[in-house]
Specification:
Layout lengths: L4 E4 L7 H11 L8 H9 L2 E7 L4 E9 L4 E9 L8 H10 L9 E4 L5 H5 L25
Parallel strand pairs: 4-5
Antiparallel strand pairs: 1-2, 2-3, 3-4
Helix pairs in contact: 1-2
Length: 144
């Protein structure tokens, strides 16, 4: 992690308004998501905040997991003004050493544009993609 920044998995440090603002206004995957849905998602995940050492939150990620066999990495973001400084790598490094995320049989994610970053951590196309199925409601948060 670059000097002056830290990652914490303490859920009490997460700035829900900051995370909601990014997800609902900036992200391509959760645009329009209601704040109460974000709060529920945080309460039911292992959350990771990226902070300046002065406490200001500058990034976020969460992992949905049973803490035994499976995990899904979601909602990963770094403040756009700080991208390209190694902070995303530092955030992912902290996630992959978290004690509750060791020895999992399957760790998955979906990404539109960060394949090369995640490949460095061992992610790739799933084996037997013909076995994967999904219900996708891509526009669930968009109002008509």
């Amino acid at each position: 992690m670059p000097q002056g920044y830290e990652v914490s998995s303490d859920p009490t440090r997460i700035d829900i308004d900051y995370v909601h603002r990014y997800l609902s206004e900036v992200s391509y995957w959760a645009h329009g998501i209601p704040r109460d849905v974000v709060a529920r998602s945080l309460a039911n995940s292992i959350v990771f905040g990226l902070y300046k050492t002065d406490g200001a939150q500058l990034g976020f990620a969460r992992v949905i997991t049973d803490r035994a066999t499976f995990a899904w990495l979601a909602d990963v973001f770094i403040d756009p003004a700080l991208q390209g400084k190694g902070l995303g790598k530092g955030l992912l490094d902290a996630i992959f050493v978290h004690p509750d995320l060791q020895g999992l049989r399957r760790f998955m994610l979906a990404t539109q544009d960060a394949h090369s970053l995640y490949q460095k951590y061992g992610f790739g196309p799933p084996p037997n993609p013909d076995r994967l199925m999904a219900i996708v409601k891509a526009d669930i948060y968009r109002q008509p």
